[in-house]
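Colleagues,

Please find the record for the two-part complex below.
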Amino acid sequence: MAEELSGLRPMNAMMGWTEGVESKNDAIELAKGFITRRFTALEASWYAVAPFMGGYLWEVHEGGPGKGYIGAAIEALSQNPSSKFWFPSADRAFQIMMRDGKPFGILLSKSESLPVINSDQPPLAMITKMQPAVRKGTGVFMTGAAMAGVGAIFLISSMAFYAVSANPGPSVRAVDFSSMPHAQWGQVQGTGVEEIVSKIEMKDGKWSVERRPHVVPGLRELRDEGAKAVQKARESIMPMPKVEEDAPPPAAPPAPLPAPAPAGIPGAQPGQQTPPAAPATAKPPVAPAAPAANLGANGKPLTAAELRRRARERATGTAHAPMPAPIPVPVDKGNKK
Amino acid sequence: MGIAMMVTSLAFFGAGAFVIKETVDMKEREARQWAETERQCAQLLNTLPSVSVAQSGKDTTVTMADVTDPRKALSDATVAAMMCPGKQLAEVCLGDRCAGAQNKVILRFKLKGQ
């Protein structure tokens, strides 16, 4: 029998009954106090209490699997109060019986234990779950760990829910202004008069311009005439006379240079010589007569610089007729006040 | 240790519940904001000159008829696109050969809902 219990039974197992204990907590404290006083391995000790016959029956183990005999003892004593029952405690036997109508337990000596252990009477069964004398907190730890794990998963899930569900509210997005409609005006800005922009379009993010020709009746003829007029005007400009810049002015007035034809007059040919200056008796031309090209208003020969200036003015069309002499206005001094 | 982890788990549960509540509230708030933005967008589009606004699902097609200032019309299209942040400018056509122009210069643009 001892071999069968090896490895399963406690190092020490005791059972007692305390009369007058009505509170379970008091019975527990009694059992714990016994463990503290008598046992060394407190953290490997177990206890169990149960109300019995107006008091509390308690059981303590040092070591072992935490299974007690108290339940089996109560059942056995209740059914057969005149018998003695036993359970092993290390290498000895603990005997429990009713004495004077009250539960009584005794740890037998080694010599007394051997006949009991070797008898045919089986020990009480270890069927009652006992409580650890010192709580290690394993249950709390496991519960806390489980709760913390579930809580962490819950928190992570809530964050994932936030990340998936949260969308930015209405806001101005990043805008590529160069692709916006107003920025496309440059594509059609240089359209000429002979083209019409049929449409400027954006599709699939790409802009395109569709044009068609614009036919203006008479535009070509008008342009031809204009070109001819310009050409004639250019041709009417006389070539510049070649004047030695450093040459001294001639002693006598030289032969007059051909006067340029007025700009815009058709028919004038480059190099065409104007007729010589009309005599003083000749009728003056209708157009303001150009002064002799190389004579100043005072009849003196012009300098080379003055000649160049006048030629430049003729070429650019900014030539002005010489200012007429101011007309003397008689002043009535008598009217002056 | 076990009790500390229990307390920590309570903090986790509380934080998770807070995040979920805030997320739900935020989604509702966003929905209200988007609805109001859409309403203001439609309202502002109708203030464009000679405009007709057609709604097709989430898409909005805006047509401005009798365009006399094409440069301004292009600017109007840009402004319209900026007025509606919930939509994207998908198509634009300015000219007398656009679909439905009938030889008149029109501006038509499509704002695509997201």
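Residues 1-6, 252-293, 321-337 of chain A have pLDDT under 50 and may be disordered.

Comments are welcome before we finalize the supplementary table.
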